[in-house]
Every structure is written in structure tokens, then in C-alpha cells.
Amino acid sequence: MKEYFSKMRGSTRSPPGVGFSEVFWSWLGSVIGISIIGYLSSQYFEPRDLTLIIGSFGASAVLVFGAIKSPLAQPRNLIGGHIISGLIGVACYQSFGKTIWIASALAVSLAISAMLITKTLHPPAGATSLIAVISGDNIHRLGYLYAFMPAGLGAFILLIVALLVNNLSKDRKYPEYWI
């Protein structure tokens, strides 16, 4: 039992801090990426009872602008994770939506499993699957379109901005790999 609890202490030191340049480029990319998605959502999607912005994009921005070398931030993971998780979230809502807690638990756990199997693990996409279940009628009405718009399209916009901004600095390179 003691050995079990001793694992919870951790075994390494905290990561080193980052310089101002890293902070600046991460800030610039995220402000541009989320602004574009938010602007397009408010001007073109929301007037049509649609949306382009979902909460999981905030966490995706952290990865694709602040942790660009992470395997979790690479294009395959960003796009594939959101689309796969969106599809699973919609399927779980449509199958088990009368019991939200079951639909929610299955959506997230099946999304994690599918992302692991397909090598597209992207933690924010777990939220994408959950959003498909717990959101309101505007999201539910989209059905499987939700996986491609807003989830896939928004992730694609973040990817384009990440490619453009993350490579402006001579000290940054994105992506590490595509597939």
C-alpha cells in the first residue's frame, strides 16, 4: 500500500520556464486563431443558428501554439482527434441521449479509445465528444455534421494559423510530422 501511495509524489522536477519569445509567439498564434474562429462564428454561422466555436478549441490552442513539439499537438492529432471524437459524441448522444450521464461517459471513453487506436490522441477532442452530448439543440440539430463543422473546420483553421505563425520565428518549427 505504501508503494502505491509513494507513486503519487512524482519523481521529477517541474519543467523549466520558457522565454519571452515563446510566450509571445504562443500568444500571437492563439489570439489570431481563436479570433478568426470567433469572428467567423459570430458573423456567418450564428446568424444561421450554427456555430464555429466550441470550448475544446481553447485547449487545442494551448497545444498547437504553446506545446508545438508535443505529439498531441501535431496535425494528425488535431484534425483527426476532433473529427473522430465529434462522430463518437454524436453517435452516443443519438443512441443514449435520454440518459445524459451514460451518453457522456461513453462519448468521452470511446473517443479516447478511438483516438488511441488511430494514433490521433488530442486531449481537447475528449471535450469535443462531450460537447456533442451536453450541448443544446443548436448542436444536437447538426447531427453528424457537428464532427466536420464546427469540430473539423475549426480545428483546420487552428492548423492553418499554427502553420503560418509557428514558423515565423527562426526558433520554432511546426509541425514535427504530418502522419
TrEMBL record:
Start and end residues of each HPP transmembrane region domain: 17-175
Segments crossing the lipid bilayer: 23-41, 50-68, 74-93, 100-122, 142-165
Domain of life, source organism: Archaea
InterPro entries (alphabetical): HPP, TM_HPP
Pfam families according to UniProt: TM_HPP
UniProt KW keywords: Membrane, Transmembrane, Transmembrane helix
Protein name as annotated: HPP family protein
Annotated source species: Candidatus Methanoperedens nitratireducens
